[in-house]
Write a structure and sequence with these properties.
This protein has 345 residues and is of the alpha/beta class.
């Protein structure tokens, strides 16, 4: 008798669940003109849904109520112009969809009748608001010429030329903060303060190397690290010495990030630096000198990932010839831009 009763209760509950699921998603499809994601629903009444959008992660959650899925789901086939990732979860009585949108895509969700559909419209964002901010630091400036090389070329001039070209490349997809846009002197501590005030997501400092040995050549990238090799330590000491030369005690520039943030930011900096240095050297036919961690004052004061790019040696005839050509400066800006975009998007 007890078994019969349990069976009867189970049967009644299953029938109630079945009755609650009064609709079926029979097809999910994309429309290109206008750009839409459409859920075709077989139902006796207008389908109900709820949605939520996480703007920071660009993640749209759509839950269609009292329905089941009547088609094979393959989220990857919807990835394209507007959708970066598409996943589904069957909650039993409701079906949930997680849709990660591409950057700068707006959406609108509504229902249509005859037949019933839940529709998501996609439109490019008309807002000028961009997701990430990049701080570009053209090394030296004003009374600080930086290194001076063949034909009296000055580091401060070349780094500013490349910085302006990089700004032009990045401005479409990022908010860009220029630490300096003219031939002005800014202390090392103020450079990081400007970037921190703007809440920059990445700090890119452009420099040019110099050596007593004119045979020294190639490009290398540094990231902030409290530990460094003897070579990296020398380069950091050289760059930090310009601050000391113009009255700034660089040892007073404090590391403001905590240890967890320090380790995370170092990981991010390395992830950008490694492929960037390889691609830059390859495209310009220059020596790839690798990437190094070092205690650069200008990176130490920034509260986020940062890289210091040594674009070449101003003391080497071949390097300076390449760095001063506008076509090569455009290549430098393009590679920097591509790798930064690739990291964030």
């Amino acid at each position: 008798m007890r078994k019969c009763l349990l069976f009867f209760v189970s049967f009644i509950l299953s029938m109630m669940m079945f009755a609650n699921n009064t609709s079926t998603i029979k097809k999910i499809r994309m429309n290109t003109n206008p750009s839409q994601l459409i859920f075709d629903i077989n139902s006796k009444s207008k389908p109900k849904f709820s949605s939520n959008y996480d703007e920071y992660n660009r993640l749209l959650f759509l839950e269609i109520e009292k329905t089941d899925i009547g088609t094979k789901f393959n989220g990857s086939k919807f990835v394209g112009k507007n959708i970066e990732k598409f996943d589904m979860i069957d909650y039993g009585s409701n079906i949930g969809f997680f849709i990660k949108l591409k950057p700068n895509v707006n959406h609108k969700i509504y229902t249509l009748n005859s037949p019933y559909r839940v529709v998501i419209d996609f439109k490019p964002s008309s807002s000028s608001k961009k997701e990430f901010t990049i701080a570009i630091d053209a090394g030296h400036g004003g009374k600080d010429p930086g290194a001076i090389g063949f034909k009296k070329y000055k580091e401060k001039d070349i780094t500013l030329d490349v910085a302006k070209k990089l700004k032009s490349k990045l401005s479409k997809d990022f908010n860009v903060i220029m630490i300096r846009e003219t031939d002005t002197f800014i202390t090392l501590s103020n450079r990081s303060k400007i970037a921190n005030k703007a809440k920059a997501d990445l700090f890119v400092s452009l420099h040019i190397n110099s050596a007593k040995n004119s045979a020294a050549e190639g490009m290398e990238i540094f990231y902030f690290s409290k530990k460094s090799s003897p070579y990296a330590e020398k380069i950091a000491a050289y760059e930090n010495s310009f601050g000391e030369k113009y009255g700034e005690k660089t040892t007073s520039i404090a590391q403001i990030m905590g240890e967890l943030a320090y380790n995370k930011n170092m990981e991010k900096s390395i992830a950008i630096a490694r492929p960037l240095n390889t691609s830059l050297a390859k495209r310009l036919g220059m020596k790839d000198r690798g990437i190094y961690g070092a205690n650069f004052a200008v990176l130490r004061g920034f509260n986020g990932p940062g890289i210091l790019v040594e674009l070449g040696f101003i003391s080497n005839k071949n390097d300076i010839k390449k760095m001063t050509r506008e076509v090569n400066q455009n290549i430098m800006a393009e590679e920097l831009s591509n790798k930064i975009k690739g990291f964030f998007y």
